[in-house]
Write a sequence for this structure.
C-alpha cells in the first residue's frame, strides 16, 4: 500500500466524515472508493481553484491494486504532484449531490 497525504479545506473533511458514517465504511475505504471511482471514469478532471482555506490533512493508504493506475493517471493528465490531483478528485466528489456521493461509495 502507498501512504497518501493531502491538505484540503476542513469542509471537505466534514463532508467525508458524514458520508463515511452514512455508508458505514472506514475512512480509508471511503477515500480509496473515491479515488477508484475517478480512475475508473478515466475522464479529465477539472482543475479546481478553490479559495477556501486549506487547513486539514487527509491521510490514507492507497490500495495496492490502484497504485499503478493512479500514477499512470497522474502522468497522462500532466499532474506535477499528487496533492493537486487528490484535491481535484475530492473537490469533484464534493460537487456531487449527497445521493450521488453515497452511491459512489456503495458501488465501489
Amino acid at each position: 500500500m502507498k501512504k497518501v497525504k493531502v491538505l484540503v479545506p476542513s469542509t471537505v473533511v466534514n463532508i467525508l466524515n458524514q458520508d463515511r458514517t452514512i455508508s458505514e465504511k472506514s475512512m480509508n475505504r471511503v477515500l480509496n472508493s473515491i479515488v477508484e471511482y475517478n480512475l475508473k471514469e478515466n475522464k479529465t478532471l477539472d482543475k479546481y481553484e478553490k479559495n477556501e482555506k486549506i487547513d486539514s490533512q487527509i491521510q490514507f493508504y492507497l490500495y495496492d491494486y490502484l497504485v499503478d493506475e493512479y500514477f499512470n493517471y497522474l502522468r497522462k493528465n500532466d499532474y506535477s504532484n499528487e496533492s493537486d490531483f487528490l484535491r481535484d478528485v475530492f473537490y469533484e466528489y464534493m460537487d456531487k449531490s449527497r445521493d450521488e456521493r453515497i452511491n459512489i461509495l456503495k458501488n465501489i
The chain has a mean pLDDT of 92. Helices lie at 10-23, 27-41, 64-76, 82-94, 98-107. The first strand starts at residue 2 and ends at 8.
